[in-house]
């Protein structure tokens, strides 16, 4: 039973959830079955661990059916009834938390019952409440559309041919559709840069973006998602990036902390991509991260600090030789990471710090304790490991690692083609660099030219290879 659906739901309950569900399950309007209430009390008493011993089926059954011998089917019936009650409670809870949806159903009820006076009062109150809210996000536009739809249906019932209601509904629909179309496309195209995704081009997206380009759109969320999308797939990325930052600064109060965090993440992703090609952009990225920490956008007020933001700011600080800030982030913000990834991310960051301080043996030991939770940790960890083996002149482990890493890259279906090729080239040139260091007669200049042509995806990796080539060149000149 400890792996059952009702237990899985109850594991997520807070103290407040339990208090509310106590009232819910005891209400005869929602539940008339005492057996369901009994099962709930038994499971609640086992919270939060729900061990198999505490809620063993054979021990639970006689507490629900004291006069019967064990019957699996009867117990399943009660468990199903409790599951249905829990699901209804979760849906009801979400329903009551969304004022826009609640108003829509109340307005529909008034309309169908012919209570026109109360429909009008509720409609005006709902509209005013919505307008007075600071938020102008996707939920706001959706609720605007729902209200307009209710008004449209109300006018249609009266057969007034109220053209204004039709036009208003179409406008609200367009705003909600365009806003969410852009929002979803931002996620889609951003992910497509990182992982291999096959998809058809979204319908009407070129027409929508052209319409926004040709017209003045006085809707902040649409403009923000338009600028985000253009930083991913459009031209003049820097222009859109700076317009995005300006819009976020002006309209930051119109979005939830979670939404603002996501929007700024898109901005940071753009500068990360630019800095991979041009390290002169690194200070710009550093300033953006500092801004996010100063404004307390990072870490978010609700939820955990993204492991990728944490990892990025530490690596960025080290790239700029700001070891103190990297240590500051590790000391202050590690506790804000999700417990599930905290130790792993902390270990990886300590490895980066050790590598920066040229403690290569420590780097290797730490990296061996990093779990590969996703392909990006895998590629970053292997890259750092290869460089550490090179620095220590551990040739056999290095060559073995290169072979296994290349095999991983070729069979991995999640990594994008460009990212795969970047790391395959890195493997190739580290191997050539090692041979050169060991006395190969290959032309140093030829290797430098090959790297310049074939390793354009990451300036940091390319510069590291150049630096190592220069070290070999200096030694050859010396002798």
Structural commentary:
The chain is mainly α and 479 residues long. The chain folds into four domains: 93 residues, no CATH class; 153 residues, no CATH class; 116 residues; 108 residues, no CATH class. Helix content is 74%, strand content 0%. It contains 23 helices and no strands. Helix 6 runs parallel beside helix 8, helix 8 runs antiparallel to helix 9 and helix 21 packs parallel to helix 23. The model has no long low-confidence stretch (mean pLDDT 93).
Mean of pLDDT: 93
Low-confidence stretches: none
Shape: globular
C-alpha termini separation: 75 Å
How much strand?
A: under 5%
Give the secondary structure arrangement, pairings included.
Layout (H helix, E strand, L loop, with lengths): L4 H6 L4 H12 L7 H12 L11 H8 L7 H26 L1 H14 L3 H17 L5 H21 L4 H32 L10 H10 L5 H14 L3 H15 L5 H21 L4 H13 L12 H13 L3 H11 L8 H15 L3 H8 L7 H18 L2 H17 L5 H21 L6 H11 L4 H20 L1
Helix pairs in contact: 3-5, 6-7, 6-8, 7-8, 8-9, 9-11, 11-12, 11-13, 12-13, 13-14, 14-15, 15-16, 15-17, 17-18, 18-19, 19-20, 19-21, 20-21, 21-22, 21-23, 22-23
């Amino acid at each position: 039973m400890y792996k059952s659906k009702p237990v899985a739901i109850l594991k997520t309950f807070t103290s407040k959830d339990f208090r509310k569900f106590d009232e819910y399950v005891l209400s005869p309007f929602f539940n008339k079955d005492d057996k369901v209430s009994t099962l709930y009390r038994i499971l609640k008493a086992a919270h939060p661990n729900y061990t198999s011993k505490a809620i063993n089926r054979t021990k639970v059954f006689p507490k629900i059916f004291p006069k019967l011998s064990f019957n699996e089917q009867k117990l399943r019936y009660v468990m199903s009834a409790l599951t249905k009650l829990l699901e209804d409670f979760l849906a009801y809870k979400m329903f009551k938390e969304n004022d826009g949806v609640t108003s829509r159903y109340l307005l529909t009820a008034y309309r169908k019952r012919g209570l026109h006076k109360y429909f009008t009062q509720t409609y005006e109150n709902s509209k005013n409440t919505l307008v007075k809210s600071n938020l102008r996000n996707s939920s706001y536009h959706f609720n605007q559309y729902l209200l307009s739809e209710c008004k449209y249906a109300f006018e249609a019932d009266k057969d007034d041919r109220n053209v204004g209601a039709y036009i208003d509904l179409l406008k609200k629909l367009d705003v909600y559709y365009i806003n969410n179309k852009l929002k979803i496309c931002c996620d889609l195209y951003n992910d497509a840069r990182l992982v291999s995704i096959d998809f058809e081009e979204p319908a009407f997206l070129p027409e929508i973006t052209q319409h926004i380009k040709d017209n003045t759109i006085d809707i902040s969320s649409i403009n923000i998602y338009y600028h985000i999308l253009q930083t991913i797939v459009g031209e003049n990325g820097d222009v859109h990036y700076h317009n995005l930052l300006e819009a976020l600064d002006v309209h930051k109060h119109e979005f939830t902390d979670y939404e603002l965090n996501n929007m700024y993440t898109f901005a940071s992703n753009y500068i990360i991509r630019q800095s991979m090609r041009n390290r002169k952009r690194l200070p710009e990225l550093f300033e953006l991260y500092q801004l996010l920490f100063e404004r307390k956008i990072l870490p978010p007020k609700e939820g955990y600090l993204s492991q990728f933001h944490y990892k990025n700011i530490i690596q960025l600080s080290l790239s700029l030789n700001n070891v103190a800030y990297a240590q500051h982030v590790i000391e202050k913000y590690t506790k804000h990471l999700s417990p599930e990834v905290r130790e792993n991310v902390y270990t990886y960051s300590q490895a980066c710090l050790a590598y920066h301080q040229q403690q290569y043996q420590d780097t290797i030991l730490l990296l061996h304790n990093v779990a590969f939770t996703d392909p990006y940790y895998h590629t970053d960890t292997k890259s750092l490991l290869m460089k550490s083996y090179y620095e220590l002149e551990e040739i056999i482990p290095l060559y073995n690692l290169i072979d296994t890493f290349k095999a991983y890259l070729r069979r991995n279906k999640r990594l994008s083609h460009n990212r795969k090729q970047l790391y395959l080239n890195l493997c190739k040139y580290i191997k050539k660099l090692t041979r050169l260091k060991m006395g190969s007669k290959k032309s140093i200049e030829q290797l430098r030219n090959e790297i310049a042509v074939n390793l354009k995806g990451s300036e940091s990796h390319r510069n590291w290879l150049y630096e190592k080539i220069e070290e070999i060149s200096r030694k050859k000149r010396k002798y």
